[in-house]
Automatic annotation (TrEMBL):
GTP binds at residues 23, 68, 100. This is Molybdenum cofactor guanylyltransferase. Belongs to the MobA family. It comes from Qipengyuania soli. One of its GO terms (cellular component) is cytoplasm. GO terms for molecular function: GTP binding; metal ion binding; molybdenum cofactor guanylyltransferase activity. Keywords: Cytoplasm, GTP-binding, Magnesium, Metal-binding, Molybdenum cofactor biosynthesis, Nucleotide-binding, Nucleotidyltransferase, Transferase.
Length: 197
């Protein structure tokens, strides 16, 4: 693999039970959560895809859709899809982000790229919490396949297995930039935060 720019894959396969419907389609400040994620990703990579649970979940024409090979694996399915997509397009690294993260910092990709060093993963940490669904990964398909084959399902545990560099992140103006929108109450709070900023 030769291209130095990491691919970005947006994980949008969650069922959205607590949201009352499709999480990527929920609106925030007049745009869907997925549109917010695509807008952010387009500023940081020329190679973007969206990972989904099944092909009926989204209807996009301009962005590649990656359908999870095994939907019962949970979020690690999105990482498998991301690794395969990056490898297919000759990228050594891929940044996996959730579709439900409207406050991602503008320097996330740059800081993780600087922080990864010789490790296989660079993962942000804010307020003492790891954020495995917002991590930069070296594309190591064989290692991930072996992890899943032995029953591994946790992205965080996979990062621990292959080697992770944690990158500390301060909360900006009291807003954790890695706040993810998991229910309608959180969506309303995010809307309020955006109105105040």
């Amino acid at each position: 693999m030769t291209d130095a720019t990491p691919a970005i894959v947006i994980a949008a396969g969650g069922e959205g039970r607590r949201m009352g419907g499709s999480k990527p389609a929920q609106t925030l400040a007049g745009k869907s959560l997925l549109d917010h994620a695509l807008h952010w990703a387009s500023k940081h990579s020329d190679l973007i895809a969206v990972a989904v649970r099944d092909s009926d979940q989204l209807d996009l024409t301009s962005i590649p859709i990656l359908v999870d090979a095994a939907a019962d694996l949970g979020p690690i399915s999105a990482l498998k899809s991301a690794f395969g997509f990056a490898e297919e397009h000759n990228r050594d690294q891929v940044l996996l982000i959730g579709c439900d993260l409207p406050f991602l910092p503008s320097d996330l990709a740059e800081r993780l790229a600087r922080g990864i060093g010789s490790q296989s993963c660079a993962m942000p940490v804010s307020k003492g919490r790891d954020h495995p669904m917002t991590a930069l990964w070296r594309v190591e398909c064989a290692a991930l396949d072996a992890f899943v084959a032995t029953g591994g399902r946790s992205i965080w545990r996979f990062a621990e297995c292959v080697g992770v560099k944690r990158v500390d992140w301060p909360a900006d103006q009291g807003i954790d930039p890695f706040t993810n929108i998991n229910d309608l109450e959180m969506l309303a709070r995010a809307e309020s935060k955006l109105r105040q900023s």
